[in-house]
Specification:
7 strands; 315 residues; single chain; elongated; three-stranded antiparallel beta sheet; Arc Repressor Mutant, subunit A; 11 helices; binds zinc ion
């Protein structure tokens, strides 16, 4: 995982000279979660080092925006807020006009739609902003809203793991059924092996999930950050339904191939779209595993077709 220092080095614009004060400001800014107004940042920094002037802080803030370290956001309050992009995946905002809190979420369906539209219009998108204004759950219920800035990177990893775990579970269900239904001895073994692998991966993912929650017990209480309308577990669930209807060995392999291909594409496509983060890692690793399963199934399918062609015609 990239350190805060490496993150800044990598983004430092060409010719940007080093400055001690600037480094102090950047480091303090990167330690904050959430969306800070410039004045709030000035207060934080001057509390640590009163020799740094307001003008320097404002200048550095602008430099950070230009360098891609900070994002300027406008929540319609008549002043800008700033959030850093270190270990902070791209996201959209829900903004409560009663308590003025903002809540972050990510939806790959929305992102895909934006890309599609931009492509159709031959537009090269640089940044998209989606802000939903309204009233948060706490304010609607008349409760005092809790002010806990959620660690977005960890939430992202949490949700990526949940999606991968759900997919792995439905994959396990699929292969267990396929192994039971397949008549060809070799095909049966392949499905059994895949079921075992899914079981093992599931164990790894669940362990990782438990570690994440152990590191931050509050993590599970935060609302969903990452939304997927067509999450990949639906792919295997549909496959299982087809299996149950009754298929022959070849068809079972073909359904498996289709599911693994769908799952691989899904995790790769979204994983590549995310910024450097644990969530991205989880998706890309998972995509690789699905790719291996896909290759194995394709080999088996070919072998089955060959054996069926060479051997005595059944029935
Ligand atoms: Zn509110
Ligand atoms: Zn934000």
């Amino acid at each position: 995982m990239q350190s805060a220092k490496e993150f800044v080095e990598q983004l430092r614009p060409a010719g940007g000279r080093r400055s001690g004060k600037r480094d102090v400001i950047v480091q303090i800014f990167l330690r904050q979660e959430g969306h800070l107004a410039a004045d709030e940042l000035v207060e934080l920094i001057r509390a640590e080092d009163a020799r740094i002037s307001r003008a320097t802080i404002y200048r550095t803030l602008q430099w950070m925006v230009d360098a891609g370290i900070a994002q300027k956001v406008d929540f319609g309050e008549g002043r800008f807020r700033y959030e850093h992009s270190y270990r902070h995946p791209r996201h959209f905002h829900l903004i409560c006009k009663t308590c003025n809190q903002s809540f972050e979420f990510l939806s790959s369906d929305i992102e895909a739609l934006i890309e599609e539209i931009a492509e159709a219009r031959r537009f090269s998108p640089r940044q998209s902003v989606l802000q939903i204004y309204g009233t948060c759950e706490d304010c609607q219920a008349g409760r005092q809203p809790e002010r806990i800035a959620a660690p977005t990177d960890a939430l992202f990893a949490r949700d990526a793991l949940r999606i991968a775990i759900a997919t792995e579970r439905s994959g396990l269900e699929f292969y267990t059924r396929a192994a039971a239904l397949t008549k060809d001895a070799r095909g049966k073994k392949v499905f059994q092996r895949l079921a075992e692998e899914e079981q093992e991966h599931l164990g790894t993912l669940e362990r990782r999930y438990r570690q994440l929650v152990k590191a931050d017990p509050e993590l599970e209480a935060h609302p969903t950050f990452l939304f997927f309308k067509g999450a990949a577990n639906g792919i295997f669930a549909a496959g299982t339904e087809e299996l149950v209807k009754g298929v022959d060995d070849r068809q079972a392999l073909l359904i498996g191939i289709r599911c693994e291909r769908g799952s691989h594409k899904f995790f790769k496509r979204y994983g590549e779209r995310f910024e450097e983060s644990e969530g991205k890692q989880i998706f890309l690793e998972f995509a690789d595993e699905e790719r291996e399963h896909l290759d194995l199934l394709i080999r088996e399918y070919r072998s089955l077709v060959e054996r069926q062609a060479a051997g005595p015609k059944r029935r």
